[in-house]
Amino acid sequence: MSLPPKKPTFKKPAFKKAPFKKPSPGDRPIKAPKPAPDESMDNDIGLNARLGALKLIEAALDHRGGFDEAGSTAEFLKLSDSERAFARALALLVLRRLGHLDHIIHNKTQKMPPEAVRALLRIGMAQIFFMQVPDFAAVSTTVKIAERDNKTRPFKGLINAILRGLIREGGLRDVNPKKLMPDWLWQRWLQTYGEDNVAAMANVLTEEPATDLSFRNSADRDRLLEKLEGEAIGELNMRSSLRGDLRHWEAYEDGLWWVQDIAAATPVNLLGDLTGKTALDVCAAPGGKTVQLVAKGASVVAIDRSKNRLKRVEDNLKRLGMTAEIHNADAASFDDPRQFDVVLVDAPCSATGTYRRQPDVLWGSKPADVAKLADVQHRLLDALADRVAPNGDLVYCTCSLEREEGETQILAFLRRNKAFTLVKHTADQHPDIPAASIAPEGWLRLLPHQRKGGQDGFFIAHLKRNPV
Ligand SMILES: C[S@@+](CC[C@H](N)C(=O)[O-])C[C@H]1O[C@@H](n2cnc3c(N)ncnc32)[C@H](O)[C@@H]1O
């Protein structure tokens, strides 16, 4: 088949930068670490960053959570700030586009090359197509890394030829969305959500997610809209088009806002004013919803099983000048007889809904994870039901797109617990939530493509404990 005329279907995106601030980890796209003046492009600085990216990708593909583990090893932490930032940015781009990149490799080779060679081609292509890295640097560093290893050395000519050929072709062609994600997830979501939805959900991967912020009050949000280059997307929420180190963004030090995807902010947004009420946040870390509950006026008890992650709740509360009672405990066996006006169960889950920001969940998750986590959610719900005061609210949510962790879980809970009734939310009550994200049953099933610019995938059910 002959190629269409050289017409790139992809443009390197232009990003707005935060005013006059230094570059930061997570800032994308990013320049490759600069070579020292007397060194050629194959200097160790550039190579180390790319080798770091390869390690992150390998770990992410190996198992769930591998990306974060690899990012906290001593070896990775030895890299300089700019090398780490580059490595993370490159690895995330590869993971977001993995299906597409592998599809290109498949088309360009007669026989799929070994995994180590594919890994190199992926990082080369991601730099060429999506990063502000000069094409020659992307090619030469990739070939240089290939030369270092017996397994990849014989393929360095092939790598060089493929990457240069792609540069000559001038850009990426669109790809069937089915190629963008692992087949098992595509099939699963196809069954659950239908073809149009699953294709749109896959295409979300091709967009760079913006940063959403939650505020203590709408007056601060409105006042800061311009400075934070934001768009109001909820009563207390903003979508900012800024990039870069958010510690330098307006009012960060004043603790007026925190980063939180709009979907993640929605469970607490559903609750009204909580002044004078008590709230139990049982899977609290890193604390995004804890601080929302405090901001709404509740006295909050926050629990998390992970000591390390709980430290982040403490740090967040401190920065925002807020307080909560904190416990490091397993919520399923938390020995505390108190009942609360609000109990929030933001349960551990497969996190498949977070794939826009954490594309590693697509490739590290396995079908068996969902069943295991559904068991944990079941246990947590049963253990916590009695902590809800009569007439109190129980909000259950997961950042998962799997029914077993959402709809099925809540239907089963309601069958087991006659003391609870589902609160039916409607689109009329919530003009800020995409109407398609509110299910006829009254719970919320937020799909990533249902909001312009995307949102995390979430399931949210709001239950009321009946009065005695
Ligand atoms: C989805 S995250 C919570 C996110 C958090 N609510 C927020 O908005 O920032 C799930 C949390 O549940 C915690 N967790 C898992 N199992 C738990 C258990 N049995 N008891 C308490 N916390 C648990 C994990 O450590 C993790 O921090």
Number of strands: 12
Unreliable stretches covering 5 or more consecutive residues: 1-42
Q: Strand percentage, roughly?
A: 5-15%
The CATH homology group name of the largest domain: Vaccinia Virus protein VP39
Counting structural domains, the number is 2
CATH topology of the largest domain: Rossmann fold
Q: Quickly give the CATH architecture of the largest domain.
A: 3-Layer(aba) Sandwich
Q: Characterize the main sheet.
A: 8 strands, mixed
End-to-end distance: 72 Å
Bound molecules: S-adenosylmethionine
Number of helices: 17
Morphology: globular
Keywords: Methyltransferase, RNA-binding, S-adenosyl-L-methionine, Transferase
Region (Disordered): 1-44
Domain SAM-dependent MTase RsmB/NOP-type: 190-466
Active site: 399
Notes on the protein architecture:
Helices cover 40% and strands 13% of the residues. The chain folds into 2 domains: 44-175, N-utilizing Substance Protein B Homolog, Chain A (Orthogonal Bundle); 261-465, 3-Layer(aba) Sandwich (Rossmann fold), CATH 3.40.50. Helix 1 crosses helix 4 (81-96) and helix 6 runs parallel beside helix 8 (156-169). The protein contains 17 helices and 12 strands. By secondary structure, it is an alpha/beta fold. The strands form 2 sheets. Strands 5, 6, 7, 8, 9, 10, 11 and 12 form an 8-stranded mixed β-sheet that branches. A 4-stranded antiparallel β-sheet has the order 2-3-1-4. It is globular. It binds S-adenosylmethionine (SAM). Residues 264, 282-289, 303-306, 309, 330-332, 346, 348 line the site of S-adenosylmethionine.
